[in-house]
Amino acid sequence: MTTTMGTRNSGWATDELITQASERAIQVRMRPHAPPIDVAVQGATVTLTSHVANQGAKEALIAVARATDGVVDVTDNLVIGGSHPVLDWFFPGRNPNQDLDDVDRARREGDR
Question: Is 52 exposed, middle or buried (0-12, 13-18, 19+ CB in 10 A)?
Fold first, then answer.
């Protein structure tokens, strides 16, 4: 019985650590006003849920999640296109098509 409880607790702790690491890795790559990415982890499987600008952004997010230590699988609930009502309200002039590629491009240009 004690072994089962220990396993359950360590599994929860592992999922929590994977969640935190995935969220940090994704946040580093996101634009400040991009729609938030919901990261859920169960049994070392990461589920990503949100709206993204294009297929490139979707693939980049999935790659970031897969690269996180401890991740066994990634479930993709990312939807291409669409707006984010809260962000549209606070930032009416925002461009919903700005994505991870823009961030990477700016970093590359800043490194020159």
Answer: buried
Q: In sequence order, which ranges of the chain are alpha helices (DSSP H)?
A: 2-29, 55-66, 85-90, 100-110
* Gap between the Cα atoms of 45 and 50, Å rounded: 17
- Looking at residue 6, what is its pLDDT? 34
* Domains detected in the chain: 2-110 (3.30.1340.30)
Q: Is 68 within 8 Å of 90 (Cβ atoms)?
A: no
C-beta neighbour count of 60 within 10 angstroms = 19
- What is the SS3 assignment for 60? helix
From 51, 62, 59, select the one nearest 87 (Cα to Cα).
51
Give the tens place of pLDDT for each residue, 77-104.
Answer: 998 876 556 656 666 665 655 545 565 5
What is the DSSP secondary-structure string of 74-95? EEEEEEES---HHHHHH-TT--
For residues 54 and 97, what is the distance between their CA atoms, to the nearest angstrom?
7
